[in-house]
Amino acid sequence: MPPADGLPGHPDYRFTLANERTLLAWLRTGLALVAAGVAVASYVPSLGTSWGGGAAGLALVATGLGAALTGYARWRGNERAIAEDRPLPAARGTVALAGAVALVLLLVGCLLAVEVAAR
């Protein structure tokens, strides 16, 4: 709401700071996924098959990159909406990221099943 003197008002800084903290959480999640991907590819190179560790590691790294990019896009859209005093945009990226994590978990689960069955 603009102030009574007619000058454009500033958005409440608490919203901007909360949006920034959310971006940092997305970035931490992305970094953790990348670190997990590097660890899997380095320490479990033959997860179920000769290519299993590399595939799982690459999938985790790609999902981590997706988390970072999704977080940035969400932060940018929210900042724009806050500045223009509009409703926040829909969170479509979170659904896609959750699906990507589920697919990675399915891949790792299948590779682990092959690993255990081979023993």
TrEMBL record:
The keyword Transmembrane helix applies. GO terms for cellular component: plasma membrane. It is a multi-pass membrane protein. Keywords: Cell membrane, Membrane, Transmembrane, Transmembrane helix. Residues 14-81 form the DUF202 domain. The chain crosses the membrane at residues 23-44, 50-73, 94-114. The keyword GTP-binding does not apply. Its main location: membrane. It is found in: Cell membrane. It holds the Pfam family DUF202. PANTHER family: DUF202 DOMAIN-CONTAINING PROTEIN, FGR18P. This is Putative membrane protein. It comes from Geodermatophilus saharensis.
